[in-house]
Each structure stands twice: as C-alpha cells, then as structure tokens.
Known about the structure:
The complex is a heterodimer of chains A (502) and B (137).
Chain A lengths: L7 H15 L4 H27 L4 E4 L10 E4 L1 H24 L2 H5 L2 H17 L3 H20 L4 H32 L4 H7 L6 H18 L18 H25 L5 H23 L4 H22 L2 H32 L10 H4 L1 H15 L7 H13 L3 H27 L18 H23 L1 H16 L2 H8 L3
Antiparallel strand pairs in A: 1-2
Helix pairs in contact in A: 1-2, 1-5, 2-3, 3-5, 3-10, 3-13, 3-18, 5-6, 5-10, 6-7, 6-10, 7-9, 8-20, 9-10, 10-12, 10-13, 11-12, 11-17, 12-13, 12-17, 13-15, 13-16, 13-18, 13-19, 15-17, 15-18, 16-17, 18-19
Chain B lengths: L3 H24 L7 H19 L1 H8 L6 H14 L26 H28 L1
Helix pairs in contact in B: 1-2, 2-3, 2-5, 4-5
Amino acid sequence: MIDNTIIYPVVAQLVTAIILLFFWGKSYPQRFISILGSLVVLLMSITLFSKVWSGNILIMESANWKPPFGIVFVADVFSSTMVLITSIVAFAVSIYSSVGIGNARQRFGYFPLFHFLMMGLNGAFLTGDIFNLYVFFEVIIISSFVLMTLGGRKTQLEGAVKYMAMNILASTIFLTGIGILYGITGTLNMADLAVKVPLVENRNIIDITAIFFLVGFGIKSAVFPLYYWLPSSYHTPPSAVAAVFGGLLTKVGVYAILRIFTLIFVPNEFMKIVLTVLSVMTIISGGFGALIKRDVRRIFSYLIVCHIGFMIGGIALFTPIALSGVLFYLIHDILVKTNIFLISGLIRNMKGNLNTLKAGGLYARYPKISLVMALVFFSLVGVPPLSGFWPKIYLFEAGFTTHNYFFIAALIIGSFLTLYIMARLWSDVFWKNPSEGDDSLIDHFKDYSRWKQALLVIPICLLAIATLYVGLAAENIVVVVKHIAAEMIDTSPYIDAVLGNK
Amino acid sequence: MKSTILKTASSYLLPILLLFSVFILLRGHYYPGGGFVGGLVAAIAFVLHSFTHGTENTLKLLRTHPGSLIPVGLGLSTLSMLAPLFSDLPVMTGLWFEEPVPVIGMIGSALFFDLGVYFLVVGIVLTILFTISVYSE
Lengths: 502, 137
C-alpha cells in the first residue's frame, strides 16, 4: 500500500529545523517552535503506527520510481514502533532542553541541530534502501558531531575527537560493505537484497560482507571491543544531548543490526558464535567498567555498553522468543537510558557536580522527585513488574531452549552488576549525608522559578510514565514485539510489500 | 590586496561570474552543472570581490548576512520536494509545467530544488569564508 504518511515524521522534523533556522539567534521563540514541532511529529508517529498496526506494511516510492530501482521508504511494525518511541523521547528532550541547555548553546543553533538529528533517526528507521540508510547515518553523525562540540569546552572537544574518529571509521567500513554487496548483487534495495543474497553461491564472500556490516554497526552501537569511544565521550556534552545520544544513537546501530541480520544476512552457526562472544564480552566489560567509575554520567555510559550486550546476545540466539526479548529490551532501553541521562542533568543542577563521592542527601531535600528517579532506576535494573524485567525473562527462556549457558551466565552477571551499581548510586547520591562545608556543592535548582523547575521535571515524569506503561501493561508490548519477531523470522510480507508481488 | 588590475577586473568579473553561475544552474538538468556548482561559482564571485575590496564592502553589497540565505535555500528545496504531495504523488516526484518558457525551457519542480541548493551553497560558503576572514583581520 502506497502512502505518503510514512515520510511525514521525517519531513516534519526537517521543516521544524528549517523554521528554527529562520529564528537563528533568538532562543526564546525557538523553544516554543521546537516543542510544538516535536509534538506534531509525535502525533504523526502515532497516526503512522496505528495505520501500520491495523494491518498493512506501508511503502512510499520516492520520486515515483518503482522498487528496486528507486529509493523506497517502508513502514512495517518494527520501523513505526521505533519512530513512535523516538518521537516520544524527542518530545521529552525538547521540553527538557528549553531549560537544560544554556542560552549560549541555544543561540548557536542547538534546536535546529537537534531536529536535524531527529530527522536522520526517523529516516534511518523508515528507509528501505541500504544506501539511503547510510545517508541517514551520515545525517545523524554530522549533526551529532556538532551537538557534541557545541559550547567548545576542552573536555567536549576531547570527547568529540574520539567519537568522531570512531564513527567515521564505522561509516567507512559500512560503506565498504555496501560497495561489496552492490558489486555482488547489483541492487541496494533491502527487500531485493533479501531475495538475491541467499542465491549467491560463493557463501564465503557473503560472510565477509556480513562481517563488514557487523563491524560498522558494532562500532556505532558500542559493542566489544570497539566500545571505548562511548564512555570517553558521552559524559562531556550537556545532559539533554547526552540523553539523546545515550538513548537513541547507539540503539539505531542495534536497529540496523536487527534489520540487516534478519532480512539480508540471516545468521549462520559461525555468525551466531561471533555474536554470542561479542555480547558476553560487551556485557562483562561494560558492567565492570561501570563498577569502577565514580562519575554518574560515566557510570551510565558504561551501563549503555553493558546493556547493548543483552540485545546483541538475543540476536545471537535467533529464536522468535529471543527476538521478542531483544525488541522489548530495545523499547525499554531507549526510554530508560534517555531518562537516566536527563536525571543526571537534574542531579547536576541540584548538586553542582556529578561525583558520587561528593554528592549526597538528595532524598532528604527532594523526596518526591527522588521517588520518580528511583522508579526509573528500578526499571533499569529490572525489578519485577517494571519494564526491565520482562525482556530478561524472554532472553533467559530463549537461552535455556538453545542451551546457550555462556550467554545466560553473562546475563546473570550483567543484571547483578547493574543492580549493585544502581544500589550503590542510590545510596551515595540520595541517602548518604552530604559532606559538610564543601563549596563545590551548589543547588541551582532551588533558585529556579516554579515554571523552570516544572520544565525540567515534566519530561522526566513523562518518560517515567512511558516506562511504567511498558512495565505494567507489558501484555500490550508483548503483542507488538511478538508480531515484529514473527515478521523477522518470516520476512516474506516485507519483501512482497516492497517488491509488489502479491 | 593592492593590485589595480585585479581590483578593476574584479568589479567587472562579479556580474559576469554571477551570470555564468545562473547559466550553469539552468544548464544542470541534463548537462554537467546544477545548483551546487552554480552556487560555488556565485560564491567565488563574491569571494573575489571581498579579496580586492575588503570583506566589509562585500557584506555591504550583499545587504544581508549570507547566513540568512541558508534557511531560504533549504526551505525552497524542501517546498519543491513536498509539492507533489498536493497532487497525491509520492514526495520528490518531478512536476512539470505544460508549456516551455522562452530562453529557460521546460520548468519543473527540479529547477526550484536546484535553485534552493544554489542559495544554500552560496549562503554556506560565504558564511564560512567571511567568518574566517573577519576573524583573521
């Protein structure tokens, strides 16, 4: 079914960004336009999701060129779910940014860049063409480079160099993979590739090409051994930026792995072993990395790495149950990871710095906000019945049925490390008595007007409610992820919808 | 730069280069050229002017800051990309007028897309170069 609705979330972000460019340097109107634009995109994403969920995979042949020749945009349940979650996060972050991002940064184009970044993300989720996917990845990384360096503090530039170097390397490898794949099959349309790649007789070259894609996406989603750029760069930009990066940028890599490795390169035994080893090492290194850090945002950065391992491991198992677990975890992870970075920004406002050894006593001063934060932390750990618990059940079940005890062990270690780290964080930052007479601890939050305080707290509550919904109404999410997992195992509806052979 | 020949020549080169850039822009649909290259040539015309007459004078000549061309160009391209939506066609489909226009030839939404790119490139190149030159002076 051909429908222009697909492109609206992408175009609306673009239009918002352009309108914001007309208001260059005027931070006050920009805040309103940004929040309004994000709200419109959120409504469009809800429409798109409900249209797709009611039965049809929608496609849009851009410029009216028929696939596999033209660039096609495809909205199946997977992409439209990702777009919906992204739009929720974008809405929350753009509210938070109006206070959480300093005036100087807003005047130098924070909001247009933020919307260009969101346009790239929505485009990457919706495109059905592998080269177009690369182009949207470029849009994402270029806008993220600027967002990361905006402000130009020394630590920011230092982090940005590492981030940029690794991401350019990843893009190069990804592009090389696309080149080889085009050389072998002569097509770039993902559905067409899904038909043509299994017919190639030389399986070795297909495996090598798959490794190119795995390394490219692996760097972007911070998989062992190429994850180190993430913890050394994500703590440097402002919290609202770090929230988008931590919540969405690594997950778009996971999305790409899921899409490419279910549609084009269905994992064989060799690939499953590679993925299992990578996931176990990612979980362990991320978990132990978080254990030795004392800065709140560095801890969260390492936890991102740790939890990426859960998802990669689920892909390695490659059963419907495991894929459901991965998808559930992906939805949960985007909401929670964005939220914990927003929370870290709020803690910074309340305490003046983010060192867990110096902070303390937050619960005594802000009991209600602390409880919301606790809810998010518990979701991250996966305390039943909150959102982190359900996907782990699926991953355990799939691990036992495929007898992959190596992965199960890593899953248990990773979960306990997360529990320990979050418990320690809670007791340090919230319960411990603050050290007396330390001048570095200044409460900026107290001096804000009610309105400004609300703008910082509302997005955190909004995302917490979304997380709570994912946890408590898990049966609704399960229906969606099972549907997506079924589509991943049997990709023929996707291929038929794109290539039009009904 | 204190070369009388260059200074005199650049005053005449500015309109000629601008005309040439429009020629490249219009030629671009079927032949080498188009909005990007046309925009670069137009930007070079102003850069040459700023070399000889100083950046302040070129900014006076432009009347507005070149940075304000960026959203205009981007907006124009986006609008021409979205135009097919109103006639229920997929985004980016080329729409063409029935009758050819004298001199220019057939006009379609692709021309407006290229025109947007043209303004965008002029805006970006001049913003970057003028920022550097004002900063270094």
